[in-house]
Specification:
The complex is a heterodimer of chains A (about 425) and B (about 525).
Chain A lengths: L11 H11 L4 E5 L4 H8 L3 E3 L8 E3 L2 H7 L10 E2 L6 H4 L1 H19 L1 H5 L7 E4 L3 H10 L5 E5 L9 E3 L16 H6 L5 E5 L6 E2 L2 E13 L4 E16 L8 H4 L3 H4 L12 E3 H12 L1 H21 L12 E9 L5 E7 L9 H18 L11 E2 L2 E6 L30 H8 L10
Parallel strand pairs in A: 1-2, 1-3, 3-4
Antiparallel strand pairs in A: 5-8, 6-7, 6-8, 9-10, 10-11, 10-13, 11-12, 11-16, 13-14, 15-16
Chain B lengths: L3 H17 L2 H12 L11 H11 L2 H14 L12 H4 L3 H25 L4 E3 L2 H9 L20 H9 L30 H7 L24 H14 L2 H8 L8 H8 L6 H16 E3 H12 L11 H12 L17 E3 L10 E3 L25 H14 L14 H15 L1 H9 L4 H10 L8 H14 L3 H13 L1 H6 L3 H7 L8 H10 L4
Antiparallel strand pairs in B: 1-2, 3-4
Classes of the chains: A alpha+beta (about 425), B mainly alpha (about 525).
């Protein structure tokens, strides 16, 4: 059972302690959700659910639980939990934008304009009401433009609407003339106003966005994995700017689409990432689409770097993010938002299987069982995208150092032969006979 | 009998005749005239110089491609004394069966028409025309009441017709024996056995590189894939139809497939093609046809319910509605055993000048027809280009899948080929399935009629269709059907009913077609 004890890894004492404490090599888990993750945890060999106040080694909690309990929980070294304490720096829309803007400024100062331009993957965004005046300046600079208002803290498309006139957002006007009492009384919810992308890439007249999964196991140093599978979510109606009140056209969350009058659950409105990548490659050619996916990689890395110094790094924490990306007609990817709790509820059998594999591989990487060496570049459907620096497919050594051509170790939308890879990679579960 | 020389001259004469009427001819003529101004054209060597110019500027290549295309759609060579029907179908009993089948379809269409009180064709009022023009790009949002319309026929109805085919000259009275045919198709057509196919499909052999096999993740791209892609780019640059066809035999790279298929089919998107499409669109706007409802219904029932093709619903209407009105499609009936349904102006029955073909393109859609178009939406998103490619695919290949003929690419041959391959190489399986009342053809028929569209995953389907284009034949579809049975043989031996056999073969979406075909053709012990 020897394994490499690399820094940051569970030390031998932690492992033995767990064994001694239970008298069996099993992982005690707590799970606050009742969807796919429950099934995956339950089926994992050697994992046992603990109820109520029992001691746990692993916790898949929701953000509410985290908020209430994290600060009061003492976690032993080997314990793992599925969120970072202040993940909202990345996942709340206003904070994400704030952090990105600040990071961009730093980059411009330190590395120049071209480098900073690599952060131009989010549309002009302003927090309201605090940045109302700045917003109005920008709004007036681009007459006739469409903007989208999103509440900072809600999900699943709730509360989102489009507007083209200032009068539609009078409630968020920050007006110095209002008295203190007036302002206190009519406290408005914090929103962000974002420039709406008016030329989204359409397939057969339909708008879609991409859902991509990124697993972060550490912020300092930054270690992030990219999952090969994902999907494109289509809006069930045809795109047109003339009907900005029709939220079914513009919003592609499955949650919203499910309520549209012509939604047919049997139909499904998703394509697997592989299908989308093949379609785009057939339409635009391999080189163009490889460049597109490289730009998409850039979004993940930069967004994580922008919160690197802000997020409270904690070796107990890992987090599975759901990134929402939108493509425009020039094949430029835009970051719409990052979700700390991407939906794990399955919308179809295919979706269920994909999410099971995603979660299984997530647990493989968290590696409570101690089967990994820590030097892997790929685990199942995950490819190591960033490890305190870019990760390349090719082995970087003295011989190859001279060559100019390194490709990033990402395979979004590529073949996911995870079962085969896992068979070769993983030793059997502790307690099971070796083959 | 004609000798080869005469046959060739006849073919050449026919092709020249056909090409003279095309736009390409006038374009080349114009180019030839205009190039006279060029300095390199000398009076002394006029013919040579003009020829060289046309070659260097790519016009010769275009002409070559056009000739190559004509060769694909040539009617069968026949004796000058033979009646014209022989070009459509040489065997009399097949012709008769097709005629009877057509009568049935027409009867069904006419009775639906009378029952529902819907006219075969109707001019749209101005308001409706305007509405349709506005909604042209999103016809899928329309929810017309289609409950009263039924598809005119489904593949299984057609299968019954094929099963009842008999050659009156063939004595099938012998006792059933090991030598007799166990399957449902009981006509003696010639087909190829595996040794012959190994020669014919040599590019698919175990030692030749293939897309669909040798581009797999753990095969280093230097072994085959990179080189193949480079060659593909060259072929596209050269704009050579014949080269593209040969190239497709080993599969088309995803990024080049759209261009390569357009080349193989010589499908252009010149202004006149776009204009032709716009005219068809205008036809759709002006008149409503009964078959339009059949198309709507088919798209809603099949493509819209497919996990991947649902996105392309609007394109399907835009292509199929125009297709129904395209009288250029009527040309293919000279080599199709089918004849377009005709109706006559009142009182002038039988008088050809007063005949009207219905629908204008002579093709009545059946349940699943839209699946011929759906995979193409992956490659082309300009409606006129998509239309042009689909139409060519139809008049070269798809029409053979729903007409009764003796052609080697025809559905009858494919069914027979499938059954014979199974009986020869998997006799135990075939026998078992027969005994439990699960004739293999009853399961495989629906795959073959659609050339597997909607049954395989899209990327696999496109790899299969690469080979259909590459070998200019649908035979590979029958081979794949047999290979699928071979692949699932173990499970099939355990089943005890037709329903459970269907269940074993219900989901083909995870199959990899090229390994299956390759193993079946080249690794089967014979």
């Amino acid at each position: 059972m020897s394994k490499n004890k690399t820094a940051g890894y569970k030390g031998p004492h932690g492992y033995q302690k767990r064994k001694e404490g239970d008298g069996r090599s099993c992982v005690r888990y707590k799970c606050g959700l009742t969807n796919t993750i429950q099934d995956v945890l339950r089926q994992r060999p050697g994992w046992m659910e603990v109820k109520d106040d029992g001691e746990w080694d692993f916790n898949w909690c929701d953000v509410g639980w985290l908020r209430e309990n994290f600060d009061h929980s003492y976690m032993e070294e080997h314990v793992r939990i599925c969120h970072f304490r202040n993940h909202y720096e990345l996942t709340r829309k206003n904070l994400m934008v704030k952090n990105l803007k600040r990071y961009r400024k730093t980059l411009e100062r330190e590395a120049g304009r071209i480098e900073a331009a690599k952060c131009d993957f989010f549309p002009r965004t302003f927090e309201l009401p605090s940045e109302y005046h700045l917003f109005v300046e920008e709004f007036k600079r681009s007459p006739g433009s469409t903007w989208i208002m999103k509440p900072v803290a809600r999900s699943q498309g709730k509360g989102i609407f489009l507007f083209q006139k200032l009068k539609d957002i009078m409630d968020w006007k920050k007006d110095g003339s209002r008295s203190e009492e007036q302002r206190d009384e009519t406290q408005v919810e914090s929103y962000v106003a974002q420039r709406y992308i008016e030329n989204p890439y359409l397939i057969s007249g339909r708008k879609f966005d991409l859902r991509v999964y990124v697993l972060v196991t550490s912020y300092i140093p930054l270690k992030a994995w990219l999952y090969r599978d994902g999907f494109a979510r289509f809006s069930s109606t045809r795109f047109s700017l003339t009907s900005i009140d029709d939220q079914y056209v513009h919003l592609t969350n499955v949650a919203v689409q499910k309520t549209a009058p012509d939604y047919d659950p049997e139909k499904g409105c998703k394509w697997q990432m592989q299908q989308l990548r093949r379609y785009l490659t057939a339409r635009h050619g391999t080189e163009t689409i490889e460049a597109l996916f490289k730009d998409v990689d850039n979004i993940f890395v930069r967004s994580l770097q922008s919160v690197q110094k802000v997020i409270i790094n904690d070796k107990h924490c890992f987090e599975l993010y759901g990134y929402d990306i939108l493509l425009d007609q020039d094949l430029k990817p835009w970051l719409i938002e990052v979700n700390a709790s991407p939906s794990l509820t399955a919308s179809s059998q295919e979706d269920y299987e994909m999410k099971c594999c995603l979660l299984e591989d997530t647990l493989h990487i968290v590696d409570m069982e101690g089967r990994l060496t820590g030097r892997e570049k790929r685990v199942g459907g995950y490819d190591l995208m960033w490890n305190d620096g870019p990760v390349y497919r090719e082995d970087v050594n003295l011989e190859t150092l001279g060559s100019a051509c390194f490709t990033a170790n990402t395979h979004l939308g590529c073949v996911n032969d995870r079962k085969k890879q896992l068979r070769q990679l993983l030793k059997p579960f502790p307690g099971k006979k070796r083959i | 009998m004609m000798d080869e020389g005469t046959e060739l001259s006849l073919t050449i004469a026919q092709i020249v005749q056909r090409l003279k009427a095309t736009n390409l001819h006038s374009q080349i003529e114009r180019q030839a005239k205009e190039c006279l101004h060029r300095p390199e054209i000398q009076l002394e060597s006029l013919k040579e110089d003009v020829r060289n110019f046309l070659k260097a500027s790519g016009w010769e290549r275009k002409l070559q491609n056009a000739v190559y295309r004509e060769l694909h759609v040539q009617p069968l060579p026949r004796h000058p004394a033979a009646p014209p029907e022989h070009a459509k179908e040489p065997l009399a009993y097949m012709r008769k069966a097709q005629v009877n089948w057509e009568k049935r379809i027409l009867k069904s269409l006419n009775s639906m028409c009378t029952e529902l009180g819907v006219p075969l064709a109707r001019k749209r009022p101005a308001v409706e025309q305007k509405e349709l023009t506005n909604k042209w790009n999103e016809m899928g949002t329309d929810e017309p009441d289609l409950s009263r319309f039924r598809p005119v026929y489904a593949p299984k109805d057609f299968l019954e017709v094929l099963i009842s085919l008999r050659n009156p000259n063939h004595d099938s009275s012998e006792e059933a024996s090991a030598k007799s045919h166990w399957g449902l198709i009981q006509v003696p057509l010639h087909d190829r056995d595996i040794p012959q196919m190994r020669e014919a499909y040599s590019e698919l052999s175990l030692t030749t590189g293939q897309l669909g096999i040798d581009d797999h993740t753990h095969v280093p791209p230097d072994l085959f894939e990179s080189e193949h892609i480079l060659i593909g780019k060259k072929v596209v640059n050269e704009q050579d139809s014949a080269a593209a066809q040969q190239y497709s035999r080993q599969g088309c790279p995803t990024g080049l497939r759209a261009d390569l298929w357009a080349l193989v089919l010589n499908s252009t998107n010149e202004p006149e093609d776009v204009m032709h499409y716009e005219q068809l669109k205008a036809g759709v706007i002006h008149h409503d046809l009964l078959v339009d409802n059949l198309i709507y219904k088919d798209v809603k029932l099949t493509a819209s319910n497919d996990d991947y093709y649902f996105v392309f619903e609007d394109f399907l209407y835009q292509v199929l509605l125009c297709f129904s009105r395209d009288t250029a499609v009527l040309e293919h009936f000279s080599y199709n055993s089918a004849t377009p349904p005709k109706s006559y102006i009142q009182g002038k029955v039988g008088v050809e000048e007063f005949a009207v073909v219905y629908p204008p393109n002579g093709v009545i859609p059946f349940h699943g027809f839209s699946m011929y178009v759906a995979p193409l939406c992956f490659l082309y998103n300009e409606p006129s280009k998509l239309y042009s490619v689909f139409r060519e695919m139809y008049v070269r290949y798809f029409f053979r899948l729903h007409s009764v003929s003796s052609s080697t690419s025809g559905i009858v041959s494919l069914c027979l080929q499938f059954e014979r391959l199974l009986q020869t190489h998997l006799p135990q399986l075939f026998y078992h399935l027969r005994e439990i009342g699960a004739q293999p053809l009853r399961i495989a028929f629906k795959w073959m009629v659609r050339a597997f569209s909607g049954y395989l995953s899209t990327d696999q389907l496109l790899l299969l269709w690469d080979r259909i284009l590459g070998y200019d034949s649908l035979e590979i579809v029958a081979v794949l059907a047999a290979a699928v049975f071979a692949f699932r043989a173990e499970n099939l031996m355990e089943v005890t009913s037709l329903t459970s056999a269907e269940a074993v073969l219900a989901d083909l979406s995870t199959l990899k077609v090229m390994p299956l075909i390759q193993i079946f053709l080249f690794a089967t012990v014979i």
